[in-house]
Amino acid sequence: MKTLMCNCGFSITNENPYHVEAAMWHHAIHDHGDMLKSMTVEMLEQWLKGKDEQLKAGA
């Protein structure tokens, strides 16, 4: 099972890592849209790297 967690407490777990990542993006866009809009490309890159580490740890 793969799991991703948001700092706000939202969590998604599924066997399919693509589903987990898509669900996390859906959550981030709908619940944290203003924050995402204020982030630079570099900040988003670091966020994505952190989420990749979470997915690897859940392998």
Number of structural units classed as domains:
1
Order of helices and strands: EEHHH
Structural class, by secondary structure, is alpha+beta
The coarse overall form would be globular
- Give a short account of the largest sheet: 2 strands, antiparallel
> Span between N and C termini?
7 Å
As a whole number of angstroms, the C-alpha radius of gyration is 11 Å
Question: In which range does the helix fraction lie?
Answer: 55-70%
Neighbour order of strands in the largest sheet: 1-2
Number of helices: 3
Characterize the quaternary organization of these chains.
single chain
Output mean pLDDT: 93
Number of strands: 2
Strand content: 5-15%
Unreliable runs: none
Describe the protein's architecture and organization:
This is DUF1059 domain-containing protein. It comes from Paenibacillus cremeus. With 59 residues, the chain is of the alpha+beta class. The chain has one domain. Helices cover 64% and strands 14% of the residues. The protein has three helices and two strands. It has a two-stranded antiparallel sheet with strand order 1-2. β1 and β2 form a beta hairpin. It is globular, with a radius of gyration of 11 Å. The protein starts with a strand and ends with a helix. The model has no long low-confidence stretch (mean pLDDT 93).
